[in-house]
Amino acid sequence: MRKIFIQTFGCQMNERDSERVLALALACGYREASSPEEADLIVVNTCTVRRKPEHKAYSLLGRFGRLKEKRPWLRIAVVGCLAQQEGERLLERFPQVDLVIGPDRIEEFPEALLKSEEGQRFCLVGFKEDPSQRVLLPPHLGVKAYVNIMQGCDNYCAYCIVPYVRGPEKSRPSEEILQEVRLLAERGVKEVTLLGQNVNSYGKKTPGELSFVQLLRKISEIPGIERIRFTTSHPKDLSEELIGAFKDIPQLCEHIHLPFQAGSDRVLKRMKRGYSREEYLRKIERLREVVPGIAITADVMVGFPGETEEDFQETLGLIEKVRFDNLFSFKYSTRKGTLASRWPDDVPPPEKQRRLEELQALQRKITLEKNKSLQGKLMEVLVEGFGERPGQLRGRTRCNRVVNFVGPRDLMGRIVWVRITEGLQNSLRGELPWEAKEAVCA
Ligand code: 5AD
Ligand code: SF4
Q1: Nearest CA to ligand 1 atom 2
Q2: Does domain 378-441 have CATH number 1.10.287.1080?
Q3: Nearest ligand, CA of residue 165?
Q4: Every domain of the chain and the residues it spans
Q5: pLDDT tens track for 85-108
Q6: Which ligand 1 atom minimizes the distance to the CA of 161?
Q7: Which ligand has the shortest distance to the CA of 157?
Q8: Which is the closest atom of ligand 2 to the Cα of 166?
Q9: What is the predicted pLDDT for the residue at 440?
Q10: Residue to substitute in 156, 165, 273, 301 for testing ligand 1 pocket (most ligand atoms within 8 angstroms of CB)
Q11: pTM higher than 0.85, yes or no?
Q12: Per-residue pLDDT at 425
């Protein structure tokens, strides 16, 4: 029997796309390989949002090309954003590549695969107008699942390649989303994370479609769904209605990922983000007024073209002011075809590195302080797997922190109360409270 190995780079959307590719390949009779060396089909699911993951994908193609010299029947497929960006060029440059499939063409994977088995090389890229996506459940279903609700982006932030490689924004029909969530819930899924580049604008382009908050309400009515998360939100589209939803939809977890990208108005303007520093801070204030204790995470970058030391200090100032629970921070890298690629990439690499390190050191300190402040608290944890030490279980709080604690295996997949004993840099340690019997809440 033929075996498939998938290597995934990038975001949660890519992780979900890899699940869809796997589901389709299993339906074509493939089994999963545990390493690329034993695979008959290798799929590289690529990301081009920054230079680093793009380079990693290229170096992997070189490595898999050498595997193909020993296993000439091996098929290599490139899917995801690099496939869309480079298209036919990948087939020209890399003779080892058999299939190139863009993110919006994944459902055509089985036909392309069969043709490639007959020796044809294939490139399927471009965007469909139809926003539908087949309901393809993840082959390894646990207690949590990702659900695509949107594709693409219309924002064209100056640095960002996403609108070019993921296409225009389109919302998946709510009926399809609800059907998928119902099926997941029937199979024991308790937590869903709704995925889109900008979930706050869900449905806005489709007359008669539900709004994002209406969609959240419908999902919360599905029996078995205990927790709902979503990512990513754009600060300019974060509405009062959505902020309010945190209060009146009990399943909506108290965590929001709200990328701010930069703390200086001058930079935000040139990035074309559509909000000012003050407007961002005001949204944070409102979130905290309505949902005290809400966890807030964000993306930020340093070294955007023209970013001065003063601009950078404003970014640090914003971080100190907001005190994020966690931050994902990046050095700017030029992406071909974006507006910012027309401007000189003028912050020298060592300076970008210095800014990144300074920013990360500040955030590490804040993250640790915030994690420590949870010591002694009782927190609701969804048990997802085994912990780092023998006998330990691992789960996540509603605020998305990882907790390791000692407990019986039969708590797996359940929601329990855990008392936090220690706040660490990247996780929490906890213990089941003495009243553990009553602590199992779902
Ligand atoms: N350079 C560096 N970081 C980038 N991001 C997006 N484009 C770039 C780029 N050209 C970051 C943003 C975004 C996250 C997914 O990646 O912070 O929110
Ligand atoms: Fe990129 Fe901006 Fe769209 Fe996010 S909102 S995907 S940063 S263009």
Answers
A1: 332
A2: no
A3: 2
A4: 3-124, 130-253, 378-441
A5: 999 999 999 999 999 999 999 999
A6: 7
A7: 2
A8: 6
A9: 53
A10: 301
A11: yes
A12: 97
